[in-house]
Amino acid sequence: MAITQITAEPAVPQLIVTSEFAAPQDLLFRAYTDPELLVQWLGPRGLALTVDHIDTRHAGTWRYIGSDADGGKYTFRGVFHGTPSPDGIIQTLEFDGMPGQVCLQTITFTELGDTTMVTQNTVYQSAQHRDQALRFDMAEDINDSIERLEQLLTRLVQERTATPIQPA
Known about the structure:
With 168 residues, the protein is an alpha+beta fold. Helices cover 30% and strands 36% of the residues. The protein is globular and about 55 Å long.
């Protein structure tokens, strides 16, 4: 099971989430940037995620829409700063339900032998904005996503090890 730590220091406009996964760095990066994989883990189980678009290059934009069983829609969007790579992703993040409240998010993928540490550092415009986001069950949603990501990675690692490598 992934070991996850969520840190939200009082009066600091920052949220740091660290999780360690039994998967290589390249699979984590792929899970964060491949639309077919993103929809399998990102967000709480009660939302069906649609990737409207994702352009993983410097100044490329992304937009995801979560839909709940009652027909509610939750749209998130942002811009990549620098070209995303297996070392990390820098992007802005904005929830359409809180227009103008833009966050800067840095995600790093650090290989630690047989595991990879993912550190997601989200900087908000104010501590109050961060606290408002936390009131919307954010910690529960993060843990749900991490659990789903771990299940996806377990499957991807198993598929990778089951596929024989063909000689060149």
